[in-house]
Write a structure and sequence with these properties.
There is one protein chain. By secondary structure, the chain is of the alpha+beta class. The chain has 2 domains: 30 residues; 96 residues, OB fold (Dihydrolipoamide Acetyltransferase, E2P). 33% of the residues lie in helices and 31% in strands. The strands form 2 sheets. The protein has a 6-stranded antiparallel sheet with strand order 3-2-1-4-5-6. The longest helix has 30 residues. The termini are far apart. 15% of the residues are buried.
Length: 134
């Protein structure tokens, strides 16, 4: 009859604990990624052809959300403040009625306000939620 020593029991038990812990981390990571829409919304913004007038802007998922008049989509992006936009923060500067233009897959959104054009570049994420353009 085969008999395991106390030390072998401890090794087997420890191995199961480690494997279980790693499995739990993978499952939690998978579940939370699917429930956090930032990556999908960021990609939707990047791949969308956006043209129209702003209905409203908001802070959303630590980024800037906006809605276009007569468009059911709500867009999320993470704009940079720079010389391209006279260092105006999009979420506070853009107002209802201002016009926006961004071709699909473009890295720049144009804001038309008071006869001037302000350009905003933005952060982009890969499918795993990692920043690929800072």
């Amino acid at each position: 009859m085969y008999c395991l020593t106390k030390k072998k029991h401890q090794v087997i038990f420890s191995s199961f604990l480690v494997i279980g812990f790693i499995t739990l981390i993978i499952i939690v990571n998978y579940i939370t990624k699917d429930k956090h829409p930032v990556w999908d919304l960021s990609n939707e913004f990047y791949t969308s052809d956006i043209i129209g007038r702003i209905e409203k802007t908001s802070i959303w998922h630590r980024g800037t959300g906006f809605k276009i008049i007569n468009n059911d989509n709500r867009f999320l992006f993470y704009p940079y403040t720079s010389e391209l936009n006279n260092k105006n923060k999009f979420r506070y500067f853009a107002a209802t009625g201002d016009s926006i233009y961004k071709p699909a897959l473009s890295d720049t959104l144009k804001l038309f306000k008071n006869g001037k054009i302000y350009r905003y570049t933005f952060r982009k994420y890969d499918s795993l939620g990692k920043i690929i353009r800072e």
